Amino acid sequence: MSSEEPVLSDEQILEFEQQIKDEEAQKVPLVCQDEPISKLEEEFKDNQQFLNKIKNLAQEHDRIRRCRGDGNCFFRAVAFSWYEKAMNDISNYDTNLAKLKESCNLLESGGFQKLAYEDFYEVAFEQFERLGQYRTDPDMLLVNFQSNEISNAIIMHFRFVTSAYLRIHSAEYEPFIIDEMISIDEFCSRNVEAFGRESDHLQIIAISKALDIPIHIVYLDGGMENKATVHEFWPTEKDELERTKTPIKLLYRPGHYDILYQK
């Protein structure tokens, strides 16, 4: 009998590595309690490039809120921020409620059947209606976003809205995926609607325009610059009206998004 250990294929090794990542991710709540930005400084104290950027970042930002790194972190960070802003500001509440109601028309225009989206929409709408109650107990928003059933339903609604926007405006966005040799419909099925798939620029642009929300992403990387690069995504041209909208701010580290709070 041979005592040699079986040789794993590349595919098996990748599956094993992904399993380890998934198990580690499960230890982190879907959305965490916010924490001071100084925690980031502790995390990267041995990386001077990152540390310089974080110290500059701390001049204008004081808190971060981590999201689980499960491939849904972008949509979860955007969704939580969107709900949180509506909870804290009545003008945001009215605007976002109107957009949420309009999203059903967007989904149907994008080819979605009511049967496919109505359960996700109902959860998203029900949680939004409760924001008035949560104002006296803001932790309830976090508690519900830590629930798999509630949080993931909202994430799927946001994914579907993003997909619908891209499908409706396929002529505008299909040229951006020409290298992938697939249609916008295939791209949306594989990369937008699929739970757990990471997001890139197209998803960011589409959700920003679909929900009429500016999204600013601070890129934290190991580059030699002392300040992190900020990419601003605006729903329309950046005019005087756009500047009155408070952006959702996200902190991006390679492959992952968290929520960033300005002072």
From TrEMBL:
Catalytic activity: Thiol-dependent hydrolysis of ester, thioester, amide, peptide and isopeptide bonds formed by the C-terminal Gly of ubiquitin (a 76-residue protein attached to proteins as an intracellular targeting signal)
Stored CDD domains: Otubain_C65
GO molecular function, one term: cysteine-type deubiquitinase activity
SUPFAM superfamilies listed in its UniProt record: Cysteine proteinases
The protein's Enzyme Commission number: 3.4.19.12
GO cellular component: nucleus
Domain OTU: 62-263
Coiled-coil region list: 40-103
Superkingdom assignment: Eukaryota
Broadest EC class assigned to this enzyme: hydrolase
Protein name: ubiquitinyl hydrolase 1
Species, as recorded: Rhizopus azygosporus (Rhizopus microsporus var. azygosporus)
